[in-house]
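Notes continue from the previous slide.

Worked example: a multi-chain complex. Inputs as given:
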Amino acid sequence: MRFGLSSSSRFHRSMNDAAANLRKTPLHARHVAMGARMVPFGGWEMPVQYAGITEEHLAVRRAAGLFDVSHMGEIEIAGDDALAAVQRISTNDASRLEIGQAQYSVLATDAGTFVDDLLVYRLADSHYLLVVNASGIQSDYAWIQQHIQGVGDAMAVNTSSRYALIAVQGPRALAILQTLTDVELDQIGYYRFTTGEVAGIRATISRTGYTGEDGFEVFVPPQGAERLWGALLTAGEPEGLRPAGLGARDTLRLEAAMRLSGQDVDDTTTVLEAGLGWTVGWEKADFVGRDALLTQRESGVTTKLVGFEMVGRGIARHGYRVLKDGEVVGRVTSGTRTPFLERAVGLAYVPRELTEAGSSLEIEIRERPVEATVVPLPFYKRDKG
Amino acid sequence: MYPTDRQYTREHEWVTVSGSTARVGITDYAQQQLGDVVFMELPEVGQEFAAGAQFGSIESVKAVSDIYCPLAGKVVEVNAALTDRPETVNQSAHEAWMIVLELSDPAATDGLLDAAAYAELVESL
C-alpha cells in the first residue's frame, strides 16, 4: 500500500522539508518521550498524535485535552499609535477591545483575500499582541512591518521566542487549570484574558481555543513550559485529560467549523467568501483590503464556503472537486469523518446558488460522484447549559 | 510478531496462499502507521487485478491510502464485515482479510517476502 499524507502535512512538507531545518518547541523532548508521532507542520516538528486521533478528540469533547501550540507566532505592536497600526492591518475593529479582551480577525490583502487569520489581544492601552499561525510567523511579520510604515509611533516586534503556548480544552479544562492557580478562572469571560501565576509560573491566561469547547490557552516563558505541561497532566489525568496532537486539533476545529489558514482560507479566497464578514469592522476609516471587501459586499459574493455532509458512501478530502449535474462547480478545502459526530463532513467553496442548507451536491471521490448535502455551520456546537 | 503462515509485500500487504486462492490484508505495521481507520473501499467480486495494481483504498481520520494487490488474480470474495467495521483493521490487522483472489498463477510468488524478511524491512524503516 501507499500511505497517504494528510493535506496539512503535504502542504507543509513541500514548503519546509527542503530546508529540513524544523524548529522544535520547548516541549519537543517531552512529546518524543511520551511516544508521540512527530510530523513537520508549518516549519516545526510537532506531535500529530499520542494515543490516537479518535481517542484524543473524544477526550476533549468529554473531559479535557492538553495541546502544545507553542508553534503559534506572537507579534507585538506598541507605541502611541499602536491602535491605528492594528486598525490598518487587521480587518476587525480593535477600538472595541478593552484591555484584557481578544478578538478574531484577518490580515487581508488589498484584494480582500487572506494573508493569515489571527487573534488580536489588547495587553495595555497602546500595546497589542497578535497571535498568528506557525507557517506565517516570518511572512506575517514582514507584511505587518511593511504595512504599518507611516502610521506614526508604532513598532512591531516578533516576540514568538518569548512564549510557549499550552492549550487546555474541554468541559473539565476550567476545573483542572483551577487547581494550579489562584486566579478565579470562572471570572474570565469568553475571549477575555488575564495574567497570574499558574503552577508557580507567570502566565497570561486566555479563555480562547480552537476546538469548539470551553477552555484556556496559557502563555508562559519557554523555560516554564515543561513544568506547566507536567503539572497539567498530573492534575488532569484523574479527570480524563489526555495529551492531544495536531491530528485531533484539526478534527476538533473542523467539527466546530473553524477555518484553517492556508487550507480553507488563503490568498485566493476573500474574507466574505470565507463567510467571515463578521470579522470586518466596516465602520473603520481604512484598513488593507477595505475597498475590495466593500465592493464585494455591494455586488455580493459569487462563491462561498459552506459546510456539507456526505449522503453517499465516502469521505471528502481537501482538494476533491465539487460537482453539480456532472459539472465541476467548486472544491473541498477540508474534509474527514469526524470522531465525535461520526459523520463524513467537510467545507467547500460552491456557487452562491448552492449555499442554501439542503442543497444537493456531489463530491468527486476517486473519480466517482458521491452525493452530499449542504448543512448549516458549525457541525458541532457545545451545549453551554 | 509477523505470522509465518503467510508472505508479505514491501508495501505492507500480507497474502496467504492456499491452493489456487489467496487472502489479502494489510500488516500490523501498516495499521499503526495509518492510525484510526474509519473507511474502506474494496473492489467488487469479479474484478481482476494485476500484481501491484491498486485494488482498494483505506482511510484513517487523517488521510487516504492506496492498497495494492500482492499477486495477480480475480476477486472471488470481499470481506463485507470489514467495510461495515473498518476499525477491525486496527484491532487485528493480521486477521482482517480484505479480499480472496483466484490466482492467475499460484506459483508467481517470487517478489514476496517471508515473515523474517518483512520484519527486517519494518525494522529498517
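Summary box: The longest strand of chain B covers residues 54-60. Residues 11-106 of chain B form a domain with the OB fold (Dihydrolipoamide Acetyltransferase, E2P) fold (CATH 2.40.50.100).
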